[in-house]
Design goal:
With 271 residues, this protein is α/β, with parallel strands linked by helices. The chain has helices spanning 2-13, 33-46, 73-100, 133-155, 181-190, 199-202, 204-211, 254-268; strands at 52-55, 104-109, 160-166, 224-226, 229-230.
Length: 271
């Protein structure tokens, strides 16, 4: 990690020397709630304010192996880990909003894959039904959208909004390590070519969501983004294309989003 930080500093020091403090790393294992709590404790010991959390790390199409706390891996890593991190650090976000007099932001990297599944509350950990990694992944990506929209409603008066987004189809990262060559080829054949992006292009919408003045309007909290813009409901003729912009009909079901929030609080032991 220090080598990554060295690279960040080297790339930016020539453009703006001494204009920002050196980034600091904090070890965190997203398959362990205890690890997340310990990492959050470290963050709280180092700062009294935060202005943004980017919920970026995740897994895709992994085998049916539970996290250390017994949750299905996609749900545990992609959703519950980020949900708990927010709960542990929300007071810092509130303080950041107060001190900066601007909104603090929680940016949840979802995916167009959210359309593969809503939330199956009757078997949320895939314990009783036949495991399908694509469906499990889709459920976790829907959970990302629900988290962003619900926290925007619950904490907007405290100066916090959530945003979710589709970064595009980025094949050069290691997230596809569990996919066979055949599966990768099939993914390519079904992908909307306009959504194939480099890693640098893929991060553009995340950066926009995190720093743009456009989201200083609290009414824009909870929006789903792609291609550095806001998305509309997915058009029916695009539903089969992998990576297509737009959100599925189930992405904004307030009752189910509230139900997932309550379930998540209980799951991580957060009131």
């Amino acid at each position: 990690m220090e080598r990554v930080i060295d690279d960040i500093v080297a790339k930016h020091s020539s453009m703006s020397p001494n204009s920002f403090p050196r980034p600091r790393s904090v070890e965190m294992h997203l398959d362990s709630l205890a690890s997340i709590r310990e990492a959050a404790k470290t963050v709280r010991s180092q700062t009294q304010t935060l202005n943004a959390i980017i919920c970026n790390a995740g897994v895709m199409f992994v085998p049916h192996e539970p996290t250390k706390d017994g949750f299905e891996a996609h749900l545990g890593v992609n959703h519950l880990a980020h949900f708990l991190l927010f709960q542990e650090l929300k007071q810092l976000l509130i303080s950041g909003a107060t001190q900066s007099k601007s909104l603090s932001r929680v940016v949840c990297r979802s995916s167009s894959g959210h359309r593969f599944s809503g939330i199956n509350f009757d078997d949320i950990n895939s314990d009783r039904s036949k495991y399908d990694a694509v469906v499990a992944y889709g459920q976790s990506k829907t959970a990302n959208i629900y988290m962003a929209s619900t926290l925007s409603q619950l904490y907007k008066s405290d100066g916090i909004i959530g945003l979710s987004l589709h970064p595009g189809v980025i094949m050069e990262t290691d997230v596809r390590r569990y996919m066979s060559e055949e599966a990768v080829a099939k993914l390519h054949s079904q992908t909307d070519p306009r959504q194939v992006k480099s890693a640098e292009q893929g991060v553009a919408t995340t950066v926009w969501a995190t720093v743009s003045p456009y989201f200083e309007d609290v009414s824009r909290g909870g929006r789903y983004l792609s291609d550095v813009g806001e998305c509309s409901p997915m058009e029916p003729n695009m539903e089969r294309a992998v990576g297509a912009s737009g959100y599925a009909a189930h992405a904004y079901d307030e009752a189910k989003a509230d139900r997932l929030w309550a379930w998540s609080c209980k799951a991580v032991g957060s009131l």
